[in-house]
Known about the structure:
The chain is α+β, with helices and mostly antiparallel strands and 122 residues long. It has three helices and four strands, in the order H-E-E-E-H-E-H. It starts with 22 loop residues before the first helix and ends in a 5-residue tail after the last helix.
Amino acid sequence: MPSNGTHLSKGFGLPKENRLRGQEEFRRVRFQGRKISSINFSVYLLRNNFEHFRFGISIKKAIATAPRRNRVKRLIREFVRLNKSLLPKGYDFLILPKRDLADLKYQEVERELGELLIGKTG
């Protein structure tokens, strides 16, 4: 938090209601959901019974070291945070990077996930 006492307003974060939690929820989306893929990501989509989307990120340990995996997760969370009003409501989605993407720029992540999840073309 900045030292001058200001802080981000609540509208900029990702509330807990938008997150998949627990191994069972991740498994349900992975095994019952529809898979869509791009060069760098696989995304599983499954209808939920809510008026909002929920998302999760799963990265294999074999893909990269912990700091690199964390960077990839931060890039994905930033995409979700900035595009939450455009993401499909009523769906759970699980995002799985296919390889070490820590060297990708945010714009590349945004383009690719945008095409998969909200139909952005550029």
